[in-house]
């Protein structure tokens, strides 16, 4: 990029909320069902139907806003956004224009820059068009129509592809950890549009902006920003002008092309939605949601490094996905050895996760079974090599590791004869122990237990040793 130019980027990010039902009707909100099975007169826009607002959607939108530092609007109203397209049977989308649910907030990047949200609003999703290139026919699936969405609109604060990708990664992480959305881009659960313009650093006014759509991965967002930045600078350098337009990104070809120019672009004719009530959100409502907010990724990171003593690098891996962090915390409740558990999860389980088609760690091995194996090793009942073998067998058979270890004679046990032999020889070497035992029985017992453990690499049954010592002494 030529150094006298700077890039000004704003993003609009849609995320589908994790509700059980749609936002204005009771149809199921679920991905991957047979097309047009989760539909009803409301979400296919039949005349005479009335929308009924889903409370869960409002609560999740509030939760998203609070996790992102936004202020919650005290009044919630909806507006109609009109456009005519087959994915929208009513020919308008119920959205928010006047009073979006969340105002402000933002995300801090690693370089210290704070990227602000203008607002976050709640709206309904449209249906999905599926084009069959072989028959040249287009099909419509209305299962997605009416699914609750939040749209995050940022200020024009970003100035590179790297910043945009970092911002999106952090936004996704925050929404997933707050249990607001799954943000699965490949399923359309998170979508991002980019507004981009370039200007000379000496210019105070923003350049003409171009909107880019159809960006279905963070990588595509990064590539599209780089491509568009270079295209605009080149255009200006050649004496040309930037046309305000919408461009579609083709990730396979690595180019963008014009979809429609501003002249054809739509006037949405926003008007207040007459079929929904305005809703008052009290301070009490806000506090209730705030108090129930799950721990943010940043708070978990701080806890892992300061309280558990993990390195920043390790802690970042554990919070890279919510299901990894949740699994780690589940293990900690069973066996509180933060560093040991972190090592097992990172070196063994994440490798298995990457090499196979598992989507959670619990699918590989339950937290309980993993902790059982680690504890056997820590208690020196099995060697390190055996512990890895036991892990593999447990993953393969899904059986209880203790049973597997017993069945395969993996746990080394020291015979009672051997133990009594060691105790006898210690006493034969130091007969004075009989006398001192009378004054300090606990101290002498512990000393003998220590000797036995030393000679058996910690594999003897301590309670049996104690029992035998007391019998001998009396
Ligand atoms: Zn419906």
Description of the molecule:
- This protein has 474 residues and is α+β, with helices and mostly antiparallel strands.
- 41% of the residues lie in helices and 19% in strands.
- It has three domains: 5-284, no CATH class; 293-407, no CATH class; 416-473, Arc Repressor Mutant, subunit A.
- It has helices at residues 55-67, 161-177, 218-237, 283-291, 297-307, 312-318, 322-334, 338-355, 361-364, 367-378, 384-397, 401-407, 416-429, 433-439, 441-455, 462-473; strands spanning 5-16, 71-72, 75-76, 79-82, 92-95, 102-103, 106-108, 114-124, 128-132, 137-141, 148-154, 190-200, 210-215, 245-250, 255-261, 271-272, 279-280.
- The radius of gyration is 31 Å and the shape is elongated.
- The N and C termini lie far apart (88 Å).
- It binds zinc ion.
Radius of gyration: 31 Å
Low-pLDDT residue intervals, each spanning 5 or more residues: none
Largest sheet: 10 strands, mixed
The ligands bound in this entry are: zinc ion
Mean pLDDT: 92
Number of strands: 17
Find the structural class using helix and strand composition: alpha+beta
Helix content, binned percent: 40-55%
Outline type: elongated
**How much of the residues is beta strand, in percent?**
15-25%
Q: Could you give the distance between the termini?
A: 88 Å
The count of domains is: 3
Work out the helix count: 16
